[in-house]
Design goal:
This protein has 17 helices and 15 strands. The protein is of the alpha/beta class.
Length: 440
């Protein structure tokens, strides 16, 4: 379908920017809107930034701009207009009448992309719920022959509910049904997380702005075949993979849906079950596309969404590691300067998920973050407890193994104090010492 993309820029909002947010250029906003439109295979025949001095309650845009866009639609024979701004139901309906074309706002466009990307049952449920919540306030009566349904039997029944009221009731019934199904999904996810805690592998979650290269980095680290394309929202459904770090530690890596500025509240609510994986993560890798001139504003958007999820700034400083990705796209001088800058900051690693540069350093930093302070231990695993060896290999770094003649195994290893205490418990070392003290 041939489409026109416009990015309204409200002068009042520009004059009073959010002091905590990084300014986003108008051209970057328009480019992102065009990218979103192309993500659902639309042919963009015209795009423009539209200044709005005084938003109109009925149409958002002034009559002059409406006429100008109407001419562009006729000239390019386009039947769809994408407005990169939230529209009220009244504004959307009035603009469709003025332009004689279909009109979609930013929220509707993102919902359309998510609808196409969802592949799992959970993703489909989440997108459908977000769609229904979005449509609930936008129902228009399309039955001109039915004003009211007759209530009761025969001719004596009084006027019943209007068709739009019936539609809203049916829509609400569907929403309740979906919310129940998603609640079951949430409980299932909690069950899976409780099972993972019984074999407590640390969880590392990848987050970042859409198209920052999360899935490419995920594939580079794990060797998985997750879809990774130069496209907004190429990945929607979360993916978890178990992997071993070079030092031998086992972790679970989670690839999540990409974030975006002005993420619709319908989506945040619907995808809360998925985003809870981020809340449970021991370490969060914030992947940034450093080749994008707008990466500063994108980073602010991601941090704001993380804050909405409950990861505050103080907590984030300890759990979030920034990954400056796509350094291979930079000019040599800019790349060298960026790498040097990252080396002087404690919470930053510069990488290229495509070439693999810096990935080994990133894996080493992940291991160090998750390991904490390591203690050296020299233990002997009795022949009757050799079933503990897989757990020991998963939770420690083995420096030396000696298989003894009596069948016991001697290990020189390094592990955290918490895991050392757990190893003692499994080997019964603490209980044995307590029994000896009691006997004495």
């Amino acid at each position: 379908m041939r489409a026109v993309v416009i990015a309204p820029v409200l002068k009042a909002a520009r004059a009073k920017p959010n002091p905590t947010a990084v300014a986003r250029s108008d051209e970057a906003r328009l480019e992102e809107a065009v990218g979103l439109a192309r993500a659902i295979d639309l042919t963009i025949v015209h795009s423009a930034v539209v200044p709005v001095s005084q938003p109109k309650p009925g149409t958002l845009l002034g009559t002059g701009k409406i006429a100008e866009i109407k001419e562009s639609l006729d000239e390019h024979d386009a039947g769809l207009v994408i407005v990169d701004h939230p529209l009220t139901p009244v504004q959307q309906r009035n603009l469709e009448k003025e332009w004689n074309a279909k009109v979609i706002d930013r929220t509707g466009l993102i919902l359309e992309i998510f609808g196409r990307r969802a592949s799992t049952k959970e993703g489909t449920l989440q997108v459908e719920l977000a769609h229904l919540n979005y449509q609930r306030g936008r129902l228009v009566r399309s039955w001109t022959h039915l004003e009211r349904q007759r209530g009761g039997a025969g001719f004596m029944g009084g006027p019943g509910e209007t068709q739009i009221e019936a539609d809203r009731r049916l829509l609400q019934d569907k929403i309740i049904k979906l919310e129940r199904e998603l609640e079951q999904v949430r409980r299932t996810r909690q069950l899976h997380r409780s099972k993972r805690k019984k074999v407590p592998h640390p969880i590392v979650a990848l987050v970042g702005y859409t198209n920052a290269g999360k899935s490419t980095l995920f594939n580079r680290i794990t060797g998985a075949g997750v879809l990774a394309e130069d496209m907004l929202f190429a990945t929607l459904d979360p993916t978890l993979r178990r992997m071993k770090l070079p030092q031998g530690r086992t972790v679970i890596l989670s690839d999540t849906v990409g974030f975006i500025s002005d993420l619709p509240t319908h989506l945040v609510a619907a995808f809360r079950a998925t985003l809870e994986e981020v809340l449970e993560a021991d370490l969060i890798l914030h992947v940034r596309d450093m080749s994008d001139p707008d990466n500063g504003a994108q980073s602010s958007d991601v941090l704001r969404i993380l804050g909405d999820l409950g990861i505050d700034e103080k907590d984030g400083a300890e759990r979030i590691l920034e990954v400056w990705n796509k350094i291979d796209r930079l000019e040599p001088e800019a790349r060298d300067a960026l790498v040097q800058k990252s080396e002087n900051q404690p919470n930053v690693i510069a990488v290229s998920a495509i070439s693999g540069e810096g990935v080994d350093t990133l894996l080493g930093e992940i291991n160090q973050r998750l390991s904490g302070v390591l203690v050296d231990r020299d233990v002997i695993v009795p022949v009757m407890q050799l079933q503990l060896l897989p757990w020991i290999y998963d939770h420690s770094i083995i420096d030396l193994r000696e298989d003894m003649e009596d069948g016991n195994v001697r290990l020189e290893l390094r592990l955290t104090e918490t895991e050392a205490a757990e190893l003692d418990r499994r080997l019964g070392i603490g209980q044995k010492a307590q029994r000896e003290d009691w006997e004495r």
